[in-house]
Write a structure and sequence with these properties.
Layout: H1 2-19, H2 21-34, H3 42-46, H4 53-57, H5 62-78, H6 85-138, E1 141-149, E2 152-160, E3 166-173, E4 178-182, E5 187-190, E6 195-201, E7 204-212, E8 218-224, E9 227-235, E10 241-247, E11 250-258, E12 264-270, E13 273-281, E14 287-293, E15 296-304, E16 310-316, E17 319-327, E18 333-339, E19 342-350, E20 356-362, E21 365-371
Antiparallel strand pairs: 1-2, 2-3, 3-4, 4-5, 5-6, 6-7, 7-8, 8-9, 9-10, 10-11, 11-12, 12-13, 13-14, 14-15, 15-16, 16-17, 17-18, 18-19, 19-20, 20-21
């Protein structure tokens, strides 16, 4: 018993020294210099767990237990289970080979899914369009295209009558204008704001009708081929009125144009302009009877002023130009050449008392005369 107590006493002392940092440093220094190595516990060699003095005395050694647990945890953490090197390499190579295959398979699945989805969407759209077309056809809706002229046509989408003729719907013209048409009331409302009331044949204005323009102009008369053709009356928003012939929407032929100012022209027209023979009566009392071209006096004619003066002769682009006779109301007379509305060139001037001058004139002034 005494020997056992001595052994336990020595063991406790050794344990105390092992836990003392200063003793540990001394042992390390001694071991490094003298080859000293700490002895292993017998329990690790024999596999038996020795009974400590604390267990004999029945008092737990909390300090030792507390210090040993972290050591055991560090040992367990520092010793991961060993694996075969070749096995790890093979697994890594296998995983590296499987990754691109998995990605390729995933992409193929996604492509197949996307293709199937697009195909379904396309089929649904085709069925929907077909259903809409069928519904429109059963309801009498049709699409047609009608040629008006070489450079103008209309497209129609709407209902047709029993004969297949357009009845009501939307019109689209080749010039970009659109319109809503209704045959039952004979009305077309254009996107420009114009409105037509009258007869229609195959979506075209044909026969008698009235066209009200958005700017306030109004046309009442005949239509043919969707244009003003034949006799009609065009009233402008500013008060001017034209009554006469139309050809393809233009004043052409014979007509009467009354201006809001009171001037009145009666005569020929061509492409909307005064052309040919005509009479123009001014509100001031002046009057011209003669030839016109492009809205201007051109050719021969007679112009009478309200004060009694008259000119009979040639006109060029609304000017007295060429040969003519100018008679003043007081009896003076000039016969000769005119240029830019004045006496210019060779001529003869006669006064009421019978005196005359023959010679040359320039800008209305006598420059050389032969007095009789």
């Amino acid at each position: 018993m005494q020997n056992g107590n001595n052994i336990n006493t020595n063991r406790n002392q050794n344990q105390y020294r092992a836990n003392d940092p200063r003793q540990a440093q001394t042992r390390n220094a001694a071991g490094n210099s003298s080859g000293y190595r700490p002895q292993q516990r017998p329990a690790q060699q024999t596999g038996q767990r020795p009974v400590s003095a604390q267990q004999r005395s029945g008092q737990p050694n909390q300090q030792r237990s507390t210090q040993q647990r972290p050591v055991q945890q560090r040992q367990n953490l520092s010793r991961p289970p060993q694996q075969n090197t070749h096995s790890r390499t093979a697994n890594a190579n296998q995983t590296a080979q499987q990754r691109p295959q998995q990605k390729t398979q995933t992409k193929k699945k996604k492509s197949r899914s996307l293709g199937s989805l697009l195909l379904i969407i396309f089929l649904v759209a085709v069925v929907a369009v077909g259903a809409v077309i069928l519904a429109l056809h059963l309801s009498g809706v049709r699409y047609t295209r009608i040629k008006i002229s070489d450079d103008l046509y209309v497209k129609f989408l709407g209902k047709v009558d029993e004969s297949g003729n357009p009845y009501s719907g939307k019109i689209v013209y080749s010039n970009g204008i659109t319109a809503d048409v209704s045959q039952d009331v004979g009305k077309i409302e254009y996107s420009t704001g114009d409105v037509y009331y009258g007869e229609l044949v195959n979506l075209l204005k044909e026969g008698k009708g009235r066209l009200e323009y958005a700017n306030g102009d109004v046309y009442d008369g005949n239509f043919k081929g969707d244009l003003q053709n034949g006799e009609g009356k065009f009233t402008y928003a500013d008060g001017d009125v034209y009554e006469g012939s139309f050809v393809n929407g233009e004043k052409t032929g014979t007509g009467k144009y009354t201006f809001a100012s009171g001037d009145i022209y009666t005569g020929g027209f061509r492409d909307g302009k005064r052309s040919g023979s005509g009479e123009y009566v001014f509100a001031s009392g002046d009057k011209y009877i003669g030839s016109y071209k492009d809205n201007m006096k051109d050719g021969t004619g007679v112009y009478t002023w309200a004060n009694g003066d008259t000119y009979s002769g040639d006109f060029v682009e609304d000017r007295r130009e060429g040969f003519g006779t100018y008679t003043w109301a007081n009896g003076e007379v000039y016969e000769g050449e005119f240029k830019n509305n004045v006496m210019s060139g060779k001529g003869k001037y006669t006064w009421p008392n019978g005196r005359t001058y023959e010679g040359y004139f320039e800008n209305g002034i006598i420059v050389r005369t032969n007095e009789n």
